[in-house]
Amino acid sequence: MSGSIVPVILSGGSGTRLWPLSRAGKPKQLLAIAEAATMLQATAARAPQAAGFAAPMVVAGEGHLPHVEAQLAEAGIAPAAIILEPAGRNTAPAIALAAIEALAADPEALILVMPSDHVIRDPAAFRRAVATAAVAVRRGDLAAFGITPDRPETGYGYIELGDAIEGAPGVQRIARFVEKPDRATAEGYLATGRFAWNGGIFLFGARAYLDALAAHAPAVLDACSAAMAAAARSGAVVRPAADAFLSATNISVDYAVMEKAANACVVPVEMGWSDVGAWDALWDISAKDEAGNVVSGAVMALGAANSLLRHEGGPALFVSGVSDLVVVATADAVMITTRQSAQSVKDIVDRLKAAGSPLPN
Amino acid sequence: MSGSIVPVILSGGSGTRLWPLSRAGKPKQLLAIAEAATMLQATAARAPQAAGFAAPMVVAGEGHLPHVEAQLAEAGIAPAAIILEPAGRNTAPAIALAAIEALAADPEALILVMPSDHVIRDPAAFRRAVATAAVAVRRGDLAAFGITPDRPETGYGYIELGDAIEGAPGVQRIARFVEKPDRATAEGYLATGRFAWNGGIFLFGARAYLDALAAHAPAVLDACSAAMAAAARSGAVVRPAADAFLSATNISVDYAVMEKAANACVVPVEMGWSDVGAWDALWDISAKDEAGNVVSGAVMALGAANSLLRHEGGPALFVSGVSDLVVVATADAVMITTRQSAQSVKDIVDRLKAAGSPLPN
Questions:
Q1: Residues 6+ positions from A227 with CB-CB distance below 8 Å
Q2: Among positive and negative, which fits the CA dihedral A192, A198, A201, A206?
Q3: What is the mean pLDDT of residues A83-107?
Q4: CB of B327 within 8 Å of any CB in chain A?
Q5: Residue range B56-89, pLDDT digits in tens
Q6: Phi, psi torsion values for B72, nearest 5 degrees
Q7: Which of A185, A339, B170, B274 is the most buried (most CB within 10 A)?
């Protein structure tokens, strides 16, 4: 079908801030963190064929292929392609592989680029935003989705909203991208109402994206074109040629294209978005009991408050008289921190990696 | 030897406030809680034959016999008797059994009654206090050791110190026993300097103790005499007759004898005593690292402060950014509480018992 919208699910991440649940071999997107489905499954379910989307593509690492195939099959999803990166080269090359693949099937294809490890509690709002963006994108623009902020978050980059675009209601030019701000700056952004979080979600014409790469990051396009031309194929699985792909610059789509392209635009959207960046974020978005606890698995909690208590293996947890705690227990590690310090889980993993411990895997 | 001092170690307890380390089948006194030796071993080592004490007697429950025998053997201690209570009947009957056993070997025997689950960091001070008490006890008095308080503790009973006793320096009459006070009362006690904690440690003439029972609790004496007359013996192990013993009143030595006897006296002593009543007490008496943590076993702690982190089994612990926490991990339970709430561990165990869980055992 000409002009199809192909979901492109970026599943290359291997974040460590949800350790010990997430591991290098089974990162966050392959886990059922916030709901019964895995985050990969939930991402695919957000842009289903039943709602008019084409079959999705997944860009992932070779090591995760068995999980990706099994999880898509479990969800009843037949992917158009599973593209295996020989190694991670950030988002600009990853998206280029998918754009090339999509173009081969449909010269008018749009690609809906979605990180695989975000939560969106209002997928209908997301799909409405996609429809909104499509009007501008079908005319050649490159659209980012800008998450309307609800707090002065210092952990995300922001997009300053620019002028409205005639004939594309709900779409605005991008005034500028800004890096993670300090607290005072973030509070200012929130107050103006003119800033949105950059959630890394995009709608592009596949052709327009490759054209933008040709203009702003030609080496990325050359590397990815060569890699796809020499790709090995097996069913839906596409293995771009490693030598060619590994020569691609490690660069994000923001730096490579969005910050430079004159045809970049943004669709502001409120859709209950979270990147579940750390355990405290999971507590934030989860349903809580009357004491403010998010409890799962073999846990006995007496007098606990505002805590995330998650048991997924190992001895049962018995918790008493604690507040604002995060406890995540697996068969081989029990991690205990506070909601305030939840980001420091990364430090534990760094320490383990430095010590050569097998636990990060 | 006539007039020997026989250590009588009361090992009948089965406290739950050091759960999940202490269990009904292996309570606190049978564990190495505060040092390399078990608390039973440390108690025996406090009154050794090398310091002129007779071989000790241990009063314990049948279920703990294998542990008691093994731990005494490991410490190179040949007990004069291991007296197995058919069931717990509190301290007055338990001490009566030992007094009867001691009298049979030495009509002039003194018995040094020691709970098996206390820490005394200055055993030399303890032995000096025993020598101090012995002067009065050999003249017929019944001596308690009164722990000089260092804080307005509301969890212990107090002894009000009375008049000095002529010819027995360091020994005083007991003005009165008082129950666990409220905070204001405890602060008043501390301020006067006339009150000591009742630590449940005593020095009696065995004959004088039985005479006092005859006067103040004759039914206890009758039951214990009958039980010992019909006891089954096997090596050092003495099994008093159950029918007779079980008819004894369940009563403490304080209620049965010390609060009533005109010849009760007290030796105030500072000896680094703790009953290690809960996990916070163990933190109090333990050596800490520069961040105030007491850490043992497979624990990685980053940015933890003033916490007790104890791993004795199960998955390793990874702790980050917490303060004033208590974590005790065993092969089948991970218990997490605060130093402030450490007493609430009892509530967990009560809940488990009510639910019929095997974990308390």
A1: A86, A97, A240, A241, A242, A244, A245, A248
A2: positive
A3: 97
A4: yes
A5: 999 999 999 999 999 999 999 999 999 999 999 9
A6: -65, -45
A7: A339
